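This part of the workshop introduces the protein records we will be handling. A learned vocabulary of local backbone shapes supplies the integers on the structure line. Getting from the letters to the tokens is the skill we practise here. As an example, a complete record with its sequence and its structure tokens follows.
=====
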Amino acid sequence: MTNAHPTEDPELPPANDRRSPPFIADERTMLDAWLDFHRATLLAKCDGLDDTELRTRSVTPSSLSLLGLVRHLTEVERSWFRRTLTGEDVDPLYYTDENEDGDFDDLDDTEPADVFAAFRAEVDTCRAIAARHPIDAVAVAKRHGHDVGLRWIYVHMIEEYARHNGHADLLRERIDGATGD
């Protein structure tokens, strides 16, 4: 079964046509643009791969895969924008207290199309949540006992994607030799 193009959402640029962030913009526009760029980068690393390739693990003993990264970043979006920023009580999609790495580990029977649909839906939800808050908003939930600002969440999300997009680069190169930014 071939993977459907992971970026069918009109709000996200096609994986092969990412929008570069502007060189000059106000703070909010810049943060939104960089976060969307990294979201699209992750999808670009998955573009054109079949279900088996998306599930391909890096090297033992690691359970890291492209599909696992998409699941993990879906959870990260959900955690920071929904649980932390708004205090929303939403259950995890892919992990449990008993299996904290379920987003990476439990994907052998997962349908990639469902994972990409969940990712797109979560990104849409989180983008809308962020847009409803001023950039200097303080999150409802504390992190390690500290208040967290929306600016910090944006920068952390960009860092999280950048780090995992580096993993995605290596995974993709291992699968089919494709490289690029």
